[in-house]
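Hey, resending since the last one bounced:
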Amino acid sequence: MTDKRSIRVTVRGSFDSLTADQKAELLAAGPDHADILAVRYTPEGHLTYDLAARPFFTFRFGEEVDDEKDIPAVTARAEATAAAWMTARGYGFKRLTSQTVDMSEVPLGPRGRRQR
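The structure tokens again:
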């Protein structure tokens, strides 16, 4: 039996060629997406941005896989989901990049190694 691997994918990009109405819409919704202290990694993706400060956005996706070989598919799915979300709303974007972390590979600090 294998343990599930918790995978976190962070997809970043830039808004591009937004209309005045789109900017106003994003700015109005901004407070719901600007709290970096409430960041979550979810299967559907958690969006954060602060359009008033800079034209960048970040989606955070979390998924579990059974095997390491499934990780590239998780990354591709996250990128496609982020692009689809932007496209469905008519928001222009560019320079999508992603970073994927297998949480089973992240070393634990001294607190994480303590016996409970």
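The first strand starts at residue 5 and ends at 15.

Sorry for the duplicate.
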